[in-house]
Specification:
The complex is a heterodimer of chains A (288) and B (323).
Chain A lengths: L1 H34 L6 H19 L7 H26 L1 H23 L14 E4 L2 E4 H23 L1 H11 L1 H6 L4 H26 L6 H16 L4 H22 L4 H15 L8
Antiparallel strand pairs in A: 1-2
Chain B lengths: L12 H12 L7 H26 L7 H17 L4 H23 L4 H21 L14 E2 L8 H24 L1 H11 L1 H6 L4 H27 L1 E2 L1 H4 L3 H13 L6 H15 L4 H18 L3 H8 L1 H11 L2
Antiparallel strand pairs in B: 1-2
The chains are: A mainly alpha (288), B mainly alpha (323).
Chain lengths: 288, 323
């Protein structure tokens, strides 16, 4: 029973943290599933969401979660423009070109953040960010619970959106067969731009909750990109449920790794698991 | 289309003449700062050439050159701590990088195209964490985040470092020439043009890609270890950092992916930017990012790739290669 009580904390923490990772990875997974491109700049765009929340909190003085009312449309616009005017063109050159251009955008964003917000570490320290709650014998930070709730909410929203709306159906059609969708009168370039925009809406949400949970710096984007890629690789590209399961698997690997091998080794355990999964099932748990 | 390999008139004489002059630079009293510029140029050139071998000729977008550089640098440093001379360290560093390439090929070579890129992106991050935790030599004051100083390299003269870098640059250039004209090179070209046709013509796709991956790791490791002999100090954040990838990718893409002379032209530009923008450190990366995106959108084949298509260059080449 002692072992179980000991493990309760890392397991619950891992599952809750997995929710945050799933939200961070969701946009990446969506863009991969539909546009078939790996957005290397995804982590940095998530961090942009965090910085917008930071500005809203420190300059305007509103709660970061409420600031999403402005943050989501803003990031949607950025994503739409990015895909429509840059990545759609890159896509026609080659797959590699898209990857390299996204990498360039990531470099540009990172150095822009350093110029605007300095290399200092920031965090969204609201009044409730430091609260905790008790469940059985252990206490958890409230933000972890928020992360998990928002993850479930966002996943269900995306699923229903793709199933019920016209745009959602168009996105699914373009994802399944680009050429046929085009023949059926779907403007695939436009659909891709909308998809990227929607993925950025999720990035905005992920950015806020990331900022509430962790501190971030201008270069944090790369670490969170690698986490998101790990999540997507574990769960399989382009599957919503897979992303959710992948997020929880990654969160559990991290917290259990930290429990057994010490806090410093927690990410090492998670990354090694990602490579191990790649070696055994290259397309992930839920991959198609 | 007739595929001929252009040969410069007079064979290798002009090239060798240039190399001899470059080799004499430290002896004829060329300013120190120029030797430093050239040193950095040679190191990046060797790395860019090897990245070009993967991205331009083997269809492998590898995002992990930093893993080979950092691992070779660390192996070299640890060897000097164990009492071996630095040159033995450099060789063992390159061997460690090549062995490591073989090891990680087990998971990442199961991945196709863009999945391969993702798989390789995780690798330097893992190594960075390993070297942040692991202290192979020395007591608690050394290793981990504090890094190691390379022992016994204060006696290495700047000229010796310069010659080592020149040697690795020359090796990388001639290795590329040799590979592209060998069975490996033609096999890689066939794979790049059509994977399944190449496979059905009896080319062992997996083996050829693995071979070029390991060769690339070995030479990149050599260059990385030489670089750390020059700096005399290594720590995990920069050794496995993303900057290596930025410079290497930028050099190859600006010059022209999949062209032999592309990395040379690209590296000249990157090193020029590196030193001119050093004063404006905060905007330096921003400008390089903009250049990377701009080149990729406007001239995806890079400078040499675009130049090759123009009539002027072709007639110049004809003039130079006519016997």
């Amino acid at each position: 029973m002692d072992i179980l009580a000991d493990l309760a904390t890392p397991i619950v923490m891992g599952i809750l943290l997995g929710g945050l990772y799933a939200v961070i990875a969701l946009g990446l997974s969506l863009v991969f599933g539909v546009v078939k491109e790996i957005n290397i700049a995804h982590g940095d765009l998530v961090i942009l969401g965090s910085y917008l929340g930071y500005v809203a909190m420190s300059v305007i003085g509103i709660d970061p979660i409420i600031s999403l009312v402005i943050g989501m449309p803003l990031l949607f616009g950025i994503g739409f423009v990015l895909q429509k005017y840059i990545l759609n063109r890159a896509f026609k050159i080659s797959m590699d070109a898209t990857l390299i251009i996204a990498f360039g955008i990531s470099i540009i964003l990172q150095s822009a953040y350093q110029l605007i917000w300095s290399p200092m570490s920031r965090g969204l320290t609201t009044s409730y960010a430091l609260e905790s709650f008790t469940m059985g014998p252990v206490r958890f930070p409230l933000t972890y619970l928020l992360d998990f709730i928002i993850a479930i909410f966002v996943m269900i929203f995306l699923r229903e959106f793709l199933r019920r709306t016209y745009l959602g159906k168009a996105i699914r059609a373009a994802a399944q067969d680009r050429k046929t969708a085009h023949l059926m009168g779907i403007n695939t370039d436009q659909v891709y731009a909308y998809t990227f925009g929607i993925s950025m809406v999720f990035a905005a949400i992920a950015g806020i909750f990331l900022g509430l949970t962790f501190a971030f710096t201008p270069v944090s984007g790369m670490s969170f990109l690698i986490i998101a890629l790990g999540v997507v690789v574990l769960g399989g590209m382009g599957s919503i449920l897979g992303t959710f399961i992948g997020g929880i698997a990654f969160g559990l690997a991290q917290t259990l790794g930290g429990h057994f091998f010490g806090l410093a080794a927690q990410m090492l355990v998670a990354y090694t698991m990602v490579l191990a999964v790649l070696a055994v099932i290259p397309r992930g748990i839920f991959g198609r | 289309m007739k595929a001929t390999i252009p040969r410069l008139r007079g064979g290798l004489t002009p090239l060798i003449a240039v190399l001899v002059v470059l080799a004499l630079f430290p002896l004829i009293g060329v300013p120190r700062i120029w030797l430093l510029y050239l040193f950095i140029f040679f190191i990046y050139l060797a790395m860019a050439n090897m990245w070009n071998l993967l991205a331009g000729y083997s269809g492998l977008i590898s995002l992990c050159p930093a893993a080979f550089i950092g691992l070779a640098g660390y192996t070299m440093t640890i060897m000097t701590w164990l009492g071996l001379p630095y040159y033995a360290g450099i060789i063992s560093g390159a061997i460690a990088a090549a062995l490591f390439a073989g090891l990680i090929s087990i998971p990442v070579f199961r991945l196709k195209g863009i999945y391969f890129a993702i798989g390789t992106l995780v690798v330097p991050e893992i190594l960075r964490l390993v070297f942040l935790l692991w202290q192979p030599v020395g007591d608690v004051r050394y290793g981990g985040g504090a890094g190691y100083s390379v022992k016994g390299v204060t006696v290495v003269s700047p000229s010796a470092e310069y010659w080592m870098a020149l040697a690795i640059a020359i090796v990388s250039i001639f290795l590329m020439r040799y590979i592209l004209r060998s069975k490996l090179g033609t096999g890689l070209a066939a794979i790049r043009d059509n994977n399944s046709t190449a496979a059905s013509s009896g080319i062992n796709v997996f083996n050829l890609k693995l071979l070029s991956f390991v060769i690339s790791a070995f030479v990149t490791g050599l260059a990385g270890a030489i670089y750390y002999v020059y700096t005399g100090y290594i720590e995990p954040m920069s050794a496995f950092g993303i900057k290596w990838l930025i410079y290497i990718m930028l050099a190859t893409v600006i010059g022209g992916e999949g062209t032999e002379e592309g990395p040379i032209v690209g590296t000249i530009i990157v090193v020029f930017l590196y030193f001119t923008l050093a004063r404006y450190a905060e905007v330096s990366l921003l400008i390089q990012g903009v250049i990377l995106v701009g080149i990729m959108l406007l001239a995806p084949q890079g400078i040499m790739g675009t130049l090759r298509k123009t009539r002027g260059y072709r007639s110049l080449l004809q003039l130079a290669t006519r016997r």
